[in-house]
# Entry
Amino acid sequence: MRYQRMLVTALALVLVMVPAISTRAQGEEVPRGPTFAARALQALVDGIQFGVIIAITAVGLSLIFGTIHLINFAHGEFVTIGATVAFFLNASAAGPGWHLIPAALAAVVFGALLGGAVERGIWRPLRARGTGLINMFIVTIGLSLLLRHIVLVLYGTRPASYAQYDIQSTIGLGPAGITPRDLTVTLLSVLVLLGIAALLQKTRIGTAVRAVSANRDLAEASGIDVRRVVLFVWMLAGGLAALGGVFFGLVEIVTWDMGFKLLLLMFAGIILGGLGSAYGAMVGSLVIGVVAQMSTLWFPVDLQYAWALLVLILVLLVRPQGILGRAERVG
# Structure
């Protein structure tokens, strides 16, 4: 009897469930996940956004290397400082509570002044004393650690976000989507990169920067004030790094070590594009950003940076000077 009652109960449950199942099958479609093409397009959109942010931060790093051949390991901290200064002015309880736009502009000015102060206070005296590039590179590592831990003490370890443009609805781009905030960041980043290209090609200071990058001694012999050009490059690099930090913190989150995490991708972008080439840094960073995001279609997100670096290695095996770099004789 017990088994018969259990069987009857089971049949009753089946009879109750069948109409609901059949009604859903007739009236509604079973929801399906996005297709591979849709996910690929979304990854491409995210990769372009990520790539142009890397490019903004990497251009200054590339120009510094082009003018004084210094690998500035502390450049990532300029990114973090720009993001945290904007956060203090915008969303910190101890700050004035400015809107994000004036806070970002103030952070860019602060980054430019910091870059100029570092050049005048550290690198110019070291060059005047004939300090070698290896020794100066070690100094950049020490400066990076110092700045990073100053930010850690002042900002703390808790991630935070800005007060504006945090939660937004998505704009449809076919099967992909992007928020107005991310679209604005992408478009502004592209405009900034175009502005840098125009500055380098159409202005006297840009021509002087390209001349110093091509041949420092010849540029100095032709009457160019190399020290002024180098100071301008450091201020430009500091301002761009701060702007990139604000953009990165806006689309992701503000943390005390965000610039250090981005530094490896900056180096990958300028090496892939061609050391010392501002345009190469733009192209290489865009490639790194797209590859990093597209790799998530097949591999775990934790490995996206590893695949970007693998592409860097493969390209350099075929073209050692980078995408837009010039081949040089050694020896």
In short: The longest helix spans residues 36-68. The first strand starts at residue 171 and ends at 173. Residues 314 and 320 are 10 Å apart (CA to CA). DSSP finds twelve helices and two strands in the chain.
